[in-house]
Amino acid sequence: MPGSATANGFLLVLAVILPFAGVLVSLALGGRNAERVALIVMPAGLAIALAIVVAVWRTGNALQYFVGNWKPPLGVAFRADGLSAVMILTSALLICGIGLFARAQFSTPRGAEARAPLVFWTLLLAVWGALNGVFIGGDLFNLYVALELLTFAAVPLVSLDGRAETLAAALRYLLFALLGSILYLLGAALLYGAYGTLDIVLLSARIHAQPVAWAAISLMTVGLLAKAALYPFHLWLPPAHAGAPAPASALLSGLVVKAPFFLVVRLWFDVMPGMPERATAQILGVLGAAAIIFGSVVALRQARLKLLIAYSTVAQIGYLFLMFPLAVRPEGGYPWSTAAWTGGILQAISHAFAKAAMFMAAGLIAEALGHDRIAGLSGIGRALPITVLAFGLSGLSLMGLPPSGGFVAKAMLLTGAVAEGQWWWALVVLVGGLLAGGYVFLVLARALGDPIEPLRLSAQVSRRRQAVVMAVALCAILLGFAPLRPSDFLQIGRPDTGIVGLR
Amino acid sequence: MNAATLYGLCSAVLVGLGLYGLIIHPEPLRKILAFNLIGGGVFLLFGVVARRGAAAGFGGDPVPQALVITGLVVAFASTALALALLVRLSSEPGRANLPSEGSGEEPMGGGPL
Amino acid sequence: MSLVRDALTILAVCAGAFFFLAGTVGLLRFPDALSRLHALTKADNLGLGLIVLGLLLQTEGAFPALRLISVWLLGLLAGATVTQLIARAVHPGGLHD
Amino acid sequence: MVFDAGLAVLVLGVAAWTIVARDTFAAVVGFIAYGLLLALVWVRLAAPDVALTEAAIGSGLTGVLLLGASTRVRRTKNLTAGKEPAAALRLAAIGLCVMVSAAIAVLVLLLPEPAPTLAAPVAANLAATGLGNPVTAVLMAYRAIDTLLEVVVLLLALLGVWSLAPDRLWGGVPGLHYRADPDGILTFDAQLLVPIGILVGIHIFWVGSVAPGGEFQGATILAAMWILTTLSGLVDTPSVSRRWLRLLLIAGPAVFVAIGLAGFAMAGAFLAYPIEHAKLLILIIEVPVTLSIAAMLALLVAGPPERSLHR
Which domains does chain B have, with CATH numbers? Predict the structure, then answer.
């Protein structure tokens, strides 16, 4: 049975409702108030996120809340285990950083209300609420609604500048997301038909290795992969993420694509713990490996900085899926006590910070130069030293060099590969790191080189914005001091009777 | 075979038909139409599940029925946004279709979408 | 008594269904838009009217009967509107100029 | 059973026609018929609430959207000029789709007997919600959080549609302008039908607590009346930055959230209702939610701002 509601569970409701309340107030008041509301919600939301982390950490148990006091299967539960809490905190920190960064770009002019700022600030909050909904949702249909919220908040951000290319990119993104939703919903219908509930905890107790369960989980996984842009579903990502305004790109690449990945983790390790076979998990690993190689090689060939970073996202998403072949049915212990499981989660978090910092740095560079052609970057290192340094630091994390969160994550994936005797994944991680080194170096070499003619900046970039980018990049670096072992915090609230083989 | 099973098979065929339309039609409008067709099939599957769960004096399990109502509204919202994007895109000069899969930097061939 | 009522209902509904069928055949077979509209409106008005009439015999109480009649009236209104609009789209200036 | 088999064949036939039709407009008309037939299927599956929703939103409003888009896309550019898919692709697609259909069909046949159901707990707790319609009880009580988030989904979709306006037209009027023709049939229609339609919409919403109907179905009819008045040119769509319009749009979700939060104090949980006031509180939520949804649906059909106010 799903147990009982915990004290502090109301924090979960606030984490979802507060950002959406902000959306409502922003729309009602309009004009400059949208930005003001966002700036008020940001610290409050961060405080809620911290409170959730503290509550999970102090009790050593997952938070649970039954909305309307209706227990599952009739009602909908919100749950936050260690994994949810970490993701909630990551989102809160990153959204505050992106919000501070975006102030200069999306300030509302005095007088009439302007389109882009109103849309950006309201949708920033909407993305936040939807992400929190995904991270704490305990019911697969409620999670579907949260995923749709995320899509509707993310798609307009892609086409915020209204150019034809970005409109096309937004439309394609939406079509892929629709495909994902339909597959997910089909799986949910089958699960309800077979087991009479969509609550994750109840399902995990009722589900068996039956064709219906397999088909449902496969359909949902494929749908989520389309939304997460895992190779070969990556086609929509580069134009969408590269075409959006820099703060929106940071939001999309850093956080939005992590939500479907998070749900794949939920499906595989919470809904059907112990059920997946190693052979099936190898498929996800192969797709991840293909994404790493393909994304990195294509990134190397890009002429524009933002596209390069977007293709790097395609590659870095691949790493996330290497955790599945390594954590499913490990030689000993639970999936979540393996190094690879923790490594995968850590990769999601450190990539969030690193990629957000990189997109914001690229945005500042493009603003200063008036373009983002890599060939024309010469001399920018002297003009914007802090920005270029932040770019380099985030690059460390993408390459997997110490000290950085990316290093710890990839080292743990390597450890997992060795421990499980699946050395081929280790090879992929190493080659991916080399290729990432290639494309980061490509940019840095240009940026630090001497310009042929004196550099003329088309716009001044404020020091404050550069500092924000630096702070976000430093978060990715600080994660490098996480211990190189399975995290205790991430294991809070994991089911401990999950392995079918051990039951 | 009872009516619920019959409509269950019907929903399976609807999903296949919609999928076919999704793959072979290059125009975005027809793709959106195909999505709605598949959606109809998936919702119908929920309806079949609901009908099979008839009990307690109800002709069907009310929970999946309510889920379908929520799903229909969400599907309408997606269609509205997709069509608005499409209309706006088609009013841009020189853009009639989604850019082909191999636009410039993209070395890959096209998938179904 | 109820037997007579049932028989009348069946008769009316069948007649209504026949008009719908005839209207549909007309819609498919007639050569141009205006004659197709002509066929369609017959089906709408008469067919629906007869079916509603047949069902009226089966209702108990005023409220369901009122509902059925309003269904027929609204159907008539919608049919008339659409016919007008389509006819105008076919002949924007009217038939005589 | 014979009727069901015939209906299923008809649904499949219309669906197939929608897919293979060459003309996009014809395909859209096929889709509307498909939606109406599905509504009949929902009646056969003992789901009258869903039938109403399918007919109103799934077929009606979606159909209006698709018709509008298909004419506007065709007017500006011939989209059907795309190349024909190769025969090999067609065959591969057919193979894939047959396999998918077959797999789902097998899974349908494999669903367990007796089917798991939540009908019993829904019925057992119905009294605590004060409602007579179990589907409304699921939407407004047991899974009210889904419904709340769904209203926000509509709001975000509307914001997304509005965001497609060019910068200079922000604060402008959505959609095309329709000239009023005082002797036109649409004007006559709007004047005659709109009051009736509003009554029907309110009726459908009102009976939703005990009988098939509810806020989404009622709101769709109200939205249709709104669309009819703008189509006839009698009343123009309001500018997107009108304060009253913004308040109308957020009123529903805002009251929903407010009463949800009040649930903390009144009944000890978010979106919980004290038993003695449950029916009243649900009604207080539903009235503004219905109005907000009606406005959102109508504005989603109207599209992004396309005309500036000063003209």
Answer: 3-90 (1.10.287.3510)
